[in-house]
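INFO  loader      accepted 1 record
INFO  loader      residues=195
INFO  predictor   begin
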Amino acid sequence: MPKVVDPELRRTDIAEAVFRLVAREGVHAASLRRVATEAGLNVGSVRHYFANHEDLLIFAAETMYARVTERVGEHVAAMDAGADKRASVMKMLSEFLPLDDRRRDETTICFAFLAESRLNPELRVLAQKLHRGLRVLVGHILRGARVHDIETNTELVSAMLDGLAFNAVHIAGAPDGERATDVVGKMLDHLVADR
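INFO  predictor   done
INFO  writer      dumping tokens
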């Protein structure tokens, strides 16, 4: 009897292989052959689920984006259920900082995809989606915190998160997670105090 494979689970397993390769070696390492080897599959199995390399990368990036969005949504639900508002907002914003191994890998992968998007039109569209998505999420968070001038402050907080995250994964001696969280907290306090 042939083995029954859940297609979505297999696609997710393949995306995980992409994540591991990109986190360790960069986007260039995530060839179909290397991804297949990393996933314990043959290339034909990967091609069964993804028409080409770009489809594979886009699916992986969209999977990562969906995971972060889901985690932010969990914090929104907790806040709606009565959790401390400031603590919930900090947890939401902290999802965009490399504060643990999972988020460090996600940040590394995200910046690798963004760098690759400069030369890859398919990834460029996704990079624009990620850029807009971060700003939509930050804007939603700031609206919930009743911050004034949402448009300007969304750009300000998004740029701060981008900079802290980029520096944390690319610059030796950049602020660690605790310091980055402190900076975000001070910015949030400043924005809330100004309303």
